[in-house]
Here is the input.
Amino acid sequence: MMKKRIAAGIAFAVCAAVVIGILVFGFPKGNDEFSDGELKVFDDYGQIEKVLSEIEDDGPMYYASGSSGIQAPGGNGPVAEDAELSDSGVAAKDAQSSDTYVQVDGVDEADIIKTDGEYIYYTSRLGYDIIIARVKDGKAADAATITEEEMGITAEDMFLTGDRLVIVGYEFRESGNQYAPIETMNTAVCVYDVSDPEAPELTGKYRQSGNYVSARITDGYLYLITTDYVDSGERRVVPSAGVDGDYEKLAADHICCFPNPARRAYAVIGSVKVDSGKGSLKADTRAVLGASDDVYCSGSSIYISDYSVNFAGFDTGGADQRTHIVKAEISKGKIRFTKEGSVRGYVLNQFAMDEEDGCFRVATTAHVKGKDVNYLYVLNDDMEVVGKVKGFAAGEQIKAVRFLGDTAYVITYEQTDPLFVIDLSDPENPEMLGSVKITGFSSLLLPEGDDKIIGIGTSTSEEEFGEVEDGVKIALFDISDPKNPKVLDSVTYRDYSSDVQYNHRALTVNKKDGWYAIPYSNWEKETGGVIQFRVSGNKLEEMSEYDCEQGIDRCLFIDDYIYGLGSYEDKLFSWKIAQ
Here is the structure.
């Protein structure tokens, strides 16, 4: 159980870093060899050791920056684990089913549950196994289990692409010597052929050193991003990677550096062709000195953010808080680091970053002279700042961002939830157009047609000792007039929480029928379920609230049924979809 506790601790630390960033004490000394500001590809390990020796970095520090009881029409409640399905009961290949909600169309993201319309694949609630269930008309039967022992990894996330199940997790191993063994780990990927989901077959395994940060699949290739700290558990100058039995140091010319790196760490990107056939996987791995906090992928580029603080002048409000952003171009598994830029403040999450028409846009929050202030930057293809909106919403922090074409929508929060509309049509002169306030705050913004936005987030209320977060809130904004946005409607679910409040992949969208679903837990009643809603005119309409005896972490739909993944047991719940 020790390795599972370690993995959980790492996941918690990564989440903390996403919320407020990672602080490091001190910046590096100047390095004349890289003073030209250009990317440097190393020729040998000696050059790498020289640069590492000049970085004054003490390592990472993570620093804190009511139920209606409605049952669906014809609802089934829990899916029986021992339900039997005949061959004729398997869903058809053309079944309508949901996909993981992603930031960029065509760029898939990993999650803890996936479906192909016939089978549901999910991570075990009681361990780290992958369970494959055959489903039809609200009933499910276990079809296969890929155990943690079989994979040799502690599963965290997965993809389902074609007939390949791609599982991402941690691999623990002993290193050091026989007298002082050290348990270390790397991130690993297992690729399974699930053309027959009831007999999954391992086709290959890829390993990459460092802590798992994020992953994407686009154009048939997995891109895995890790942060690999030098001296984390063992003396290691450079990252390692390999396929199947191979696990070797990266060649020096696969590692690069921008001027004055701030950490003794690497941002590592590995690419894996997920449909490589049987035998060894095809993979490539590159690294750049730095680290990874959040990742945005446009499909042709990957942007990696890394937040750091120089504490000189901190007491007087003069601490230099910067987010460094490294750009890597990707194409058919090839990875090429190209440019680096930096902006003031920290990035909330991947939705605070975006690429459009050769420009990179990013929203940040910084602490300046005792007060939070917010910025929106536009960088050109060379990662140089060419435009910005600075210092808006003083005293508040960014809680949500959504870039839609030439417009940015930004939610900030202190006691109310202002939605800001920013025009980016002229990259060199971005302009604040308008704003509107509402209580609580949204953490996820969804476009609804051309003139509305849905905000999903947290409700708040005033209590004796101040404001408290007390539930889930869904809001509907009118953005038809960018200079005068309006709140059209809002719905609050007191005593509820939902994974959607901090993880967009927990959202389910049915584009064809025009509705949304979110999983929830009711902490007061210790129950849970799924809320299904849609926009009807200028109103939010709850279509149904499906409940069960435990919290639900994820939900998806197949044909006429919603399936929910319970929080505590290896159990799927199902309900007939309300129309």
Observations:
- Helices lie at 2-20, 45-53, 148-151.
- The radius of gyration is 24 Å.
- Confidence is low (pLDDT under 50) at residues 1-36, 58-93.
- Residues 1-57+104-292 form one domain.
